[in-house]
């Protein structure tokens, strides 16, 4: 029996309009969803459908209006902000739609930071970060800052940062969104390699139906619900 790594129970989230007359944007509506250990799931849907919001709520970066998110068997709303941050660092790797690297830090230190937050000492964190960056073909860019990297290189640093803690699940928000086809294929391949080797579940939002269909499951987000495409 495989285990559940992320689960939602009757999860709902809406954004209120700016003025009282504006309608609320209902993004997620009473969603029951499970991600199993080691599986790959693509989430597709129109721009504005709520894909990023869903990933943020799954990752505990935004709170739902009602319902629950569980990581394994633990409901995440039981934790303080500090404990949630600690548990997130242990459980999940998050790849943002826009990479969110720290501009003043090198590629190496951006990746090492994820381990430092979990309590790894500096030397060991840097060693492990270097290994992951080398595997993503960035061994020659360790000391470059984000501004000195190409878009694809930045995205690979962001992926290295998500993988370095060996999380149970990777949540990736359009990780290949701004990349040319060849680089997008490489970036996707590195996520799939990690999935196979580390058995980490992958939940990936993408506009590429081609990449989506290379995942085991494809779900489409529309009107607050996920429907099965594959
Ligand atoms: N903080 C916010 N306040 C108000 N409305 C928001 C907020 N964040 C997102 N929204 C709205 O919620 C809806 C869903 O946004 P979201 O970013 O989740 O869409 P998406 O599916 O990721 O789109 P894209 O494919 O363009 O990235 C949009 O209509 C957006 O305008
Ligand atoms: Mg988005």
TrEMBL record:
Q: Which UniProt keywords apply?
A: ATP-binding, Cell inner membrane, Cell membrane, Lipoprotein, Membrane, Nucleotide-binding, Transport
One of the record's GO molecular function terms: ATP binding
Q: Which InterPro entries match?
A: AAA+_ATPase, ABC_transporter-like_ATP-bd, ABC_transporter-like_CS, ABC_transpr_LolD-like, MacB-like_ATP-bd, P-loop_NTPase
Provide an example Pfam family for this protein. Answer: ABC_tran
* Gene3D superfamilies tied to this protein: P-loop containing nucleotide triphosphate hydrolases (3.40.50.300)
Family matches, as CDD domains: ABC_MJ0796_LolCDE_FtsE
Signal peptide bounds = none
The segment(s) forming the ABC transporter domain are: 6-229
Q: Which domain of life is it from?
A: Bacteria
Q: Which family does it belong to?
A: Belongs to the ABC transporter superfamily.
- Protein name according to UniProt: Lipoprotein-releasing system ATP-binding protein LolD
């Amino acid at each position: 029996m495989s285990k559940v790594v992320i689960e939602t129970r009757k999860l709902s989230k809406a954004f209120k309009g700016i003025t009282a007359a504006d309608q609320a944007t209902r993004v997620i509506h009473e969603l029951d969803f499970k991600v199993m250990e080691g599986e790959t799931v693509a989430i597709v849907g129109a721009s504005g459908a709520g894909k990023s919001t869903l990933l943020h709520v799954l990752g505990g970066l935004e709170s739902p209006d009602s319902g629950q998110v569980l990581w394994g068997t633990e409901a995440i709303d039981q934790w303080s902000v500090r404990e949630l941050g600690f548990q997130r660092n242990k459980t999940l790797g998050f790849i943002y739609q826009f990479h969110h690297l720290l501009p003043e830090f090198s590629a190496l230190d951006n990746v090492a930071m994820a381990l430092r937050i979990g309590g790894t000492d500096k030397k060991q964190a840097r060693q492990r970060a270097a290994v992951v960056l080398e595997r993503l073909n960035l061994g020659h860019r360790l000391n470059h800052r984000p501004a000195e990297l190409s878009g694809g290189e930045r995205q690979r640093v962001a992926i290295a940062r998500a993988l370095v803690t060996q999380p149970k699940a990777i949540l990736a928000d359009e990780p290949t969104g701004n990349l040319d086809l060849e680089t997008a294929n490489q970036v996707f391949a590195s996520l799939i390699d990690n999935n196979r080797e580390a058995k980490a579940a992958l939940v990936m939002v993408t506009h590429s139906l081609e990449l989506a269909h290379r995942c085991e499951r494809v779900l489409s987000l529309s009107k607050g619900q996920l429907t099965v495409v594959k």
